[in-house]
Each structure stands twice: as structure tokens, then as C-alpha cells.
Prior knowledge:
The chain is of the alpha+beta class.
Amino acid sequence: xxxxxxxxxxxxxxxxxxxxxxxxxxxxxxxxxxxxxxxxxxxxxxxxxxxxxxxxxxxxxxxxxxxxxxxxxxxxxxxxxxxxxxxxxxxxxxxxxxxxxxxxxxxxxxxxxxxxxxxxxxxxxxxxxxxxxxxxxxxxxxxxxx
Length: 146
Ligand code: FES
């Protein structure tokens, strides 16, 4: 259905799939349009650098490919630079998504923001420019999902 070679490559061979034990922050978001779910784990060091990032996705090929690419882009970045990685940048890095699949790429951006939000809350800090993701799934609901 018109996926680019890069999308197919990341879908077939996703980077950073899995989870991090004792993450600095974790965020879980759902896509209202399709019900797909994504969770992102971040390991952030004391210099505010994203040392490691992992994801789990219950979603379509586009969701898997965008998560894979988004985690690649976030890894090694400062929190502020990680925050600037938009779904447009992720789509561009994948040479584009079919128009009906662009909403899928929002999951990755939102899950990263939700994980950063969790990190900020755990550490009692404010991350400039970060808003609480609307689609953040609360703990109680997570229990039911997993
Ligand atoms: Fe649900 Fe793509 S159809 S994330």
C-alpha cells in the first residue's frame, strides 16, 4: 500500500524494540483512531542525555517503523533535542508515509513526550516546552491492557 523501502526495512528489522528495566521515564499512549498502543522507555543520564531508548508497539506496520526510526533519532540526544523530534521529522527520515498512515506516526512522538513527562514528574523538574500528552494512558488503564 505504498510504503517506502525505508518503512519496510524498519518494519522488518525494528531498532530498539523491547523494554528497559528501571527506566528513567516510561510513557504509554494510545491512538484514538485505531486503538493501537505504544510504550516508550527512556534511560536518561545525569547530563540529561538519552542514553538508551526502547519501545513496544501494538500497532500497524507504520507504527512499528515510525517507533523504530523515532527511537533511533532520540538516542544520544539531550532532552531538549529529543523534544524537538516531531512526527514530521520521523516521516521524512522514512521517506514519507502514505497519507492515511500519517496519524500512526503521531504515536511515536507522543509516547516519547509521555516518557519525558514521566521522567520530569519522577524527578520533580520541569522540561521547558513539554506539555502533558493528551493521549497518555493512566496506570489503572495500563493494568487492564497488559
Ligand atoms: Fe494504528 Fe497505524 S493503524 S497506528
